[in-house]
Amino acid sequence: MGTLYLVRHGQASFGAADYDNLSELGHKQSVRVGEYFAHKGIHFDGLIAGTLRRHKQTLEGILKGMNRAGEHLSWEGLNEYDSEAVIATVHPHKLEKPTSPEMYRHHFRLLRDGLSQWMSGVVSPRGMPSYTDFVTGVSSALDHVRANHYGKNVLVVTSGGPISTAVGYVLGTPAETTIELNLRIRNTSITEFAFTPKRHMLLTYNGIPHLDDAKYNDWVTYS
Known about the structure:
- This protein is 42% helix and 15% strand.
- It has helices at residues 24-40, 53-66, 83-88, 101-119, 131-148, 160-171, 175-182, and strands spanning 2-8, 46-49, 73-74, 153-158, 190-195, 200-207.
- Strands 3-2-4-1-5-6 form a six-stranded mixed beta sheet.
- Helix 4 (101-119) runs antiparallel to helix 7 (175-182) and helix 6 (160-171) runs antiparallel to helix 7 (175-182).
């Protein structure tokens, strides 16, 4: 039996011109995850990450917190969907930067609607793969882990979409459930799978044990 740890990236720059960049807090969250792994005595035999900047920055922070270095395997299939392209399929006009709770709620209502239509094949967001191909990108990473790391610990750094998709794929949930899982995932949360050469089994989802102390209450974020 092996254990796969999927970590969502640290807080990125929601509402900024370039979302794909960790905030100052995002960097701190990433290092804190690494400190937690080191404290628990968890060592990784395999390191895999999506190719987005926030994935690489988060992995760098984790390794810093663990006081170790290591080469990782880049996996494009672990990259996040383009939320702006998804929203554009149901709202063709550019959204203003959210500045109020209602604007944030409006943003995520549109995202939920766009995701539902993309997953059902009704819309094709510009520059994005079909949902079937998106799932294949995620499941191929799971296949790689099972085929190459049996009996070992593996760390994957990616985004909320691929993590919720991996959970939905393993559990066989409907697309609606995957969406709900996706929209509730926290930055640097840890999702664990046990795995054999034949299958993955969900152990935990969206946990933040590294932020359990009251001094980290302000470090719990979702964007």
